[in-house]
Design a protein that fits this description.
Layout: H1 7-15, H2 23-48, H3 52-90, H4 97-135, H5 144-169, H6 175-206
Helix pairs in contact: 2-3, 2-4, 2-5, 3-4, 4-5, 4-6, 5-6
């Protein structure tokens, strides 16, 4: 499992000529690190803030950020599994009509799985940005640079994940599926950009 590698080994794997881990894995890992940062911020904020109502809200934000951290961490390896499934489907023989039909169906299913995995990562990062926007109004000023790094990482992870959804959509023949996913992506990216802009403005005002 990629998550069991040391940081140095993971970087080395990415730098190699192997097709995986690749951009989809890096995007998921970046999202997981963003969630981890938000968890840290919530933990530190809870220790510094005296108002119990605010502390309770921070605990709620932490619980969601921690759940997203686990989701995104699992996607680091799931992305490789999805990629390998596409490769395996492509290798199915196609000498007869029956085999070609089986191969076509297997490839379509594998491509959809390969699109769904980064889509889950993108949706998770979109939610992380929402959490960062809420957190920035509750945390001490000395933590806003960490929020900025976390929000920037979430935005970059979302963008990378969306790219990997789109690259798979190019080969999927189910037009309804493709249209639905593209529409979902467009709305998510637009909303995320608005939130990121709001976060950046608040951080710049505080620095």
């Amino acid at each position: 499992m990629l998550l069991n590698l040391s940081v140095t080994d993971f970087i080395g794997r990415v730098a190699s000529d192997a097709p995986a881990p690749g951009g989809r894995n890096v995007a998921a890992l970046l999202g997981a690190l963003s969630a981890a940062l938000l968890c840290m911020i919530c933990r530190l904020s809870e220790k510094k803030i005296k108002e119990e109502s605010v502390r309770e809200e921070i605990r709620s934000l932490f619980a969601r950020a921690d759940a997203l951290r686990n989701t995104l961490s699992s996607l680091v390896d799931e992305d490789t599994a999805a990629f390998n499934q596409v490769v395996a489907a492509m290798k199915i023989p196609k000498q007869t009509p029956e085999k070609r039909s089986r191969r076509t169906k297997a490839v379509e299913e594998a491509l959809k799985k390969a699109a769904e995995t980064p889509l889950t990562a993108a949706q998770s990062c979109a939610e992380l940005l929402e959490l960062a926007r809420k957190t920035i109004n509750l945390t001490p000023v000395e933590l806003i640079s960490d929020i900025g790094v976390g929000a920037g990482s979430a935005a970059a992870s979302l963008e990378g994940a969306v790219m990997n959804v789109k690259i798979n959509l190019l080969s999927i023949k189910d037009n309804q599926y493709v249209t639905e996913k593209r529409s979902l992506i467009e709305g998510m990216v637009s909303r995320a950009a608005e939130i990121k802009k709001e976060i950046d403005l608040k951080i710049n005002d505080g620095l």
